[in-house]
Write a structure and sequence with these properties.
Blueprint lengths: L12 E5 L3 H12 L3 E6 L12 E4 L5 H11 L3 E4 L6 H9 L8 H7 L2 H11 L7 E4 L2 H11 L3 E5 L9 E3 L5 H10 L7 E5 L5 E9 L4 E3 L3 E6 L2 E7 L5 H18 L3 E10 L2 E8 L9 H4 L4 H10 L11 E7 L10 E2 L8 E5 L10 E8 L3 H11 L3 E2 L18 H4 L6 H6 L2
Parallel strand pairs: 1-2, 1-4, 2-3
Antiparallel strand pairs: 5-8, 6-7, 6-8, 9-10, 9-11, 9-13, 11-12, 12-15, 13-14, 15-18, 16-19, 17-18
Helix pairs in contact: 1-10, 2-3, 3-4
Bound molecules: adenosine-5'-diphosphate and magnesium ion.
Length: about 425
C-alpha cells in the first residue's frame, strides 16, 4: 500500500463522524500513518478535533449538513463514531461512491435495536434474550406480562443507558414507560427484553476485512447506570463458551460485512452465550487494549479500514477504569495524584472542554500478571483521580460563545493603560 502525506492532493483522508475519546485514539493512529484526519462533531474542541488536521462542527443528524461536508472534503473513508448520525446522509454518500465504514447498511442496522435484534435473532438465528417491540403503554404492559419479571425496557434508538430501566413487577411499568419517553433519540418504539441472569458479560472485539477476521481476547466489564466503569482482559471463559462467542461474533460481523472493528456484546451463563448488541466501531470497554495488545482496537480498526493485515500480539493481562466527572464545569480539571503514574499504568485524559455529572473525562489503564490483579489495581488507582472542587463556574452557560473560558478573561490592558493608568 502506498502512503502519502497529509494536506497534499493525493492525501489519504479519513473523516471521523463523532470526535470523542474513541475517535481521538483512531485519529492518533491515523496520524502515525501519515493520513489526513478530518474530525467532525456537534460541539467545538471535541477530543479528536484536537489531534486532527481539520475540525468541523455540524449538526450530524442533519442530512444536508453531513452530505455537504462529505462532498466538500471528499474523504477516502468515512468512520462513524457515534450512533446519532443522519443515516440518509450515509446511504447517499455511499451511493455517490464514498466508502462508509463498515458500510451504511451496517450502521443503519446497529443504530436501531429493532433492526439489529431482528437481524441477529430472526435472520441469523442467534440466541438472544426473548424480546418484544412495543409502542404504547398497553403493549408494554402486555409484553412484560408475557416475558415475565424482571424485564429490561429500552428505547430502540438510545445508548449509554439513556431511557433504560428494569421493571421488577407490574407496578414498575408506568415508571419505565416514563423513563423511556424522556430519553433522547426516537423513543416512539421500545424493546422489552427478558432479563438474562448471566454469570458475566463480555465484549468480543472482532476485526474484519475481505481477507480475514481476527478476535481479541474477550473483555469482561462492569456496567453502572448503563455505562461501563471497569473492563479487563482477558476474561477467563470455558472453551465451549469462548468457541460459541467467536461463532456468534463471526456470524454477526460477516452478516454486517465491510471492513473495520466491531464490539460484539455477549452475555454468558454457564456454557450458554447470548448475543446482546454490536457496535460497528471501537468499543469503550476496549480502551483496555491500549495497554494489553501490540495493536490496540484503534490501530486494528484503522488497519482493517485500510485493508491491511490484522495480525497483533496479546502482551499482558490488563484492566481499565473510567473516570467520570462529579460536577458541571466549563474549565474541567482532572486532579491526578502522581502515584497513579506508575510504570505499569497509563492515564489518558480526554481533554473534553466541559464536564457534566457522569461524563467520562479520563481513563486509567493498568497491567498485571493476571486480569484479577489488574482489575484490583485499576479499582484502587482510579481513586487517585478526582475533579478538583470548582469555586467559580457552577453551571454551563447557554451561550456557546461563553464556552471558551479564555474568552471570558477581561481584555488585557494596553501598554499605555498599564503605564499611565486607564
Ligand atoms: N436483557 C438483559 N438482561 C440482563 N442485563 C441486560 C439486558 N439488557 C441489557 N442489560 C445490561 O445493561 C447493559 C446496557 O445494555 P445495552 O443493551 O448494552 O445498552 P447500551 O446500548 O446502552 O449499551 C448491558 O451491558 C447489561 O449489563
Ligand atoms: Mg451495550
Amino acid at each position: 500500500m502506498q502512503f502519502s502525506a497529509p494536506l497534499k492532493s493525493d492525501a489519504i483522508k479519513i473523516m471521523l463522524l463523532g470526535s470523542g475519546e474513541l475517535g481521538k485514539e483512531v485519529a492518533i493512529e491515523a496520524q502515525r500513518l501519515g493520513l489526513e484526519v478530518i474530525a467532525v462533531d456537534r460541539y467545538p474542541n471535541a477530543p479528536a478535533h484536537q489531534v486532527a488536521h481539520e475540525a468541523h462542527v455540524i449538526n450530524m443528524q442533519d442530512k444536508a449538513q453531513v452530505l455537504d461536508l462529505i462532498r466538500r472534503v471528499r474523504p477516502d473513508y468515512i468512520l462513524p463514531e457515534i450512533e446519532a448520525i443522519s443515516i440518509d446522509a450515509l446511504f447517499e454518500a455511499e451511493k455517490e461512491g464514498f466508502t462508509v465504514i463498515p458500510n451504511a447498511e451496517a450502521v443503519n442496522k446497529t443504530m436501531n435495536r429493532k433492526n439489529i435484534r431482528r437481524f441477529a435473532a430472526e435472520e441469523l438465528g442467534l440466541k438472544t434474550s426473548a424480546y418484544r417491540f412495543v409502542s404504547t403503554l398497553e403493549e408494554l404492559e402486555k409484553a412484560a406480562e408475557e416475558l415475565g419479571f424482571p424485564c429490561v425496557i429500552k428505547p430502540v434508538m438510545s445508548s449509554s443507558g439513556h431511557g433504560q430501566s428494569i421493571a421488577h413487577s407490574a407496578t414498575d411499568i408506568q415508571k419505565s414507560w416514563e423513563i423511556a419517553k424522556e430519553a433522547r433519540g426516537d423513543a416512539s418504539e421500545l424493546i422489552v427484553e427478558e432479563f438474562v441472569r448471566f454469570d458475566y458479560e463480555i465484549t468480543l472485539l472482532t476485526a474484519r476485512t475481505e481477507n480475514e477476521t481476527v478476535f481479541c481476547e474477550p473483555i469482561g466489564h462492569e456496567q453502572k447506570d448503563g455505562d461501563y466503569i471497569f473492563s479487563w482482559q482477558p476474561m477467563p471463559m470455558s472453551p465451549t463458551a469462548l468457541q460459541k462467542a467467536k461463532e456468534i461474533a463471526k456470524a454477526v460481523t460477516d452478516g454486517l460485512g465491510g471492513r473495520g472493528i466491531f464490539g460484539v456484546e455477549l452475555f454468558v451463563k454457564g456454557d450458554e452465550v447470548y448475543f446482546s448488541e454490536v457496535s460497528p466501531r471501537p468499543h469503550d470497554t476496549g480502551m483496555v487494549t491500549l495497554i494489553t495488545q501490540s495493536q490496540s482496537e484503534f490501530a486494528l480498526h484503522l488497519r482493517a479500514v485500510l485493508g491491511l493485515p490484522l495480525g497483533f500480539a496479546f502482551f499482558t493481562p490488563g484492566a481499565s477504569a473510567a473516570f467520570k466527572a462529579t460536577q458541571e464545569s466549563v474549565t474541567p480539571h482532572v486532579d491526578v495524584d502522581p502515584q497513579a503514574f506508575g510504570p505499569d499504568t497509563f492515564v489518558r485524559i480526554f481533554g473534553k472542554p466541559e464536564s457534566h455529572k457522569g461524563r467520562r473525562m479520563a481513563v486509567l489503564l493498568t497491567m498485571a500478571a493476571s486480569e484479577k490483579e489488574a482489575l484490583q489495581k485499576a479499582k484502587e488507582r482510579i481513586s487517585l483521580l478526582r475533579d478538583t472542587p470548582q469555586t467559580t463556574e457552577k453551571s454551563v452557560p447557554e451561550n456557546p460563545s461563553e464556552q471558551d473560558d479564555r474568552a471570558k478573561t477581561p481584555p488585557q490592558k494596553s501598554f499605555f493603560q498599564r503605564i499611565f493608568g486607564a
